[in-house]
Amino acid sequence: MMDLSTLRWVLLVSLSITLVFVWYRRFRVNTLANEVPVVKHAELTQLDVAYHPERLKLSMTVPRDQEMHAAVLDEGWNEVKRFPARLLERGRPEWVLEVSGLAPGRYYVRLTSSGQSTERMFILRGA
C-alpha cells in the first residue's frame, strides 16, 4: 500500500509529464499550421491571341513538373473546345493552343492541374 507522500509524488510527476506533452502538441500543431508552405501551383503570367491561324499563346510559371489540362469556354461557361493534357516542365514554359474555327466573340480559357483551376478571358476579333 502506498502512503500519501508517494501518491502525491506520483501524481505531481504524471501531471508534469502530461502538461509538457499537451504544450508540445499545441506548439507542433500551431507551428505546422503557420510555417509549412502550401503546395505551389502553376501561374498563368501572359495570354496573347495570335491570328492567321487563330491561336492562344500562354506563358506560365511552373514551380514543379505537372500535368495541365486546357479548355476554351464560351460566355455561358459552356465548354467549346478541349485540348489534350500536357506535361509541363518546371520553369517558364509556353503553350500554344489552336482556336481556329471559333466565331468572333468573348471566350475564356480554363487551365486545370491537380487541385487548381484558373480561368482567363480573351476576345477573338473578326477579320
Brief sketch in words of this structure:
This protein is an alpha+beta fold and 127 residues long.
| Helix-and-strand structural type | alpha+beta
In percent terms, what proportion of residues is strand?
Answer: 35-45%
Distance between the termini: 99 Å
Radius of gyration, CA atoms, in whole angstroms: 28 Å
Q: Assembly state here?
A: single chain
Given the C-alpha coordinates, what overall shape results?
Answer: rod-shaped
Q: Uncertain regions: pLDDT < 50 for 5+ in a row?
A: none
**Mean pLDDT over the full residue set:** 88
Spatial strand order of the main sheet? 4-3-6-7
Order of helices and strands: HEEEEEEE
Please give the number of β-strands. 7
Number of helices: 1
Reported for the largest beta sheet, the result is: 4 strands, antiparallel
